[in-house]
Amino acid sequence: MLYVLEGSTLGGQVIHQRLLAKGIFPEVRSICFHHPYGPLVREKWEDFKLVLNELPDDCTDDALFMAKATFTALKNWMKGTLIVP
After folding, report:
1. N- or C-end of the chain: fewer Cβ atoms within 10 A?
2. 3 with 52: CB under 8 angstroms?
């Protein structure tokens, strides 16, 4: 799950730059949803990868399952159909 969410911070950099280039939301540069770590995005991602690389190899199937489940939950949330037990 964290792989999906943390990975989105990288894509958020592209979105953030495009919003700024179009003059959209310039007043929230430092706290923008698409720019959560400010200039530390790359550093935070590298730190996260170090943690991932320490996980045992037998976690791969579980990690893939959770990544897919996270994408599904996010999609359902955006559609307004997320059901939380």
Report:
1. C
2. yes
Closest listed residue to residue 6, CA positions, set 79, 70, 84, 77: 70
Three-state SS annotation for 47-85 = HHHHHHHCCCHHHHHHHHHHHHHHHHHHHHHHHCCCCCC
Place of tokens 């590298």: 46
In the structure encoding, which two tokens stand for residue 84, read together? 């939380």
Q: Are 38 and 30 in contact (CB under 8 A)?
A: yes
0.85 exceeded by the pTM? no
Single out the residue of 26, 33, 40, 25 nearest to residue 8, CA to CA. Answer: 33
